[in-house]
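Q: Got a minute? One more chain.
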Amino acid sequence: MTEVVAALIWDKNRLMICQRPKNKARGLLWEFVGGKVEPGETKQQALIRECREELAITVSVGNQFMETTHSYPDMTIHLTLFSCTIKEGTPKLLEHHDLRWITPDEMTSFSFCPADQPILKRIMEENKR
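A: Always. Here it is, folded:
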């Protein structure tokens, strides 16, 4: 099983989503920024590194939002999502095809990676209140 981390980054009532590059598995699907945990890294360290590599930002990693496991045809991932804030920098598309700031109501208009579905469901439920 592959350990993967992702960042739930909010700006007021909008959250950041990123579109995967065309040439990668699940190309052009939307996701939360993040990636694989390397040997010797904590999940938080991996998330800080991935945000720097992919968006040229430094994040403050907050509480764990949730975790989920999903099996794709090519791999099984254990995904941990953390609430984060941007500490430094403006997001740049270093790896992703696109980036958007959306409200929870707009999430259904985007095609997300299957592993993100339980996360989307929880975000929508929590934002109905």
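A: The chain has one domain: 2-126.
Q: Perfect, thanks.
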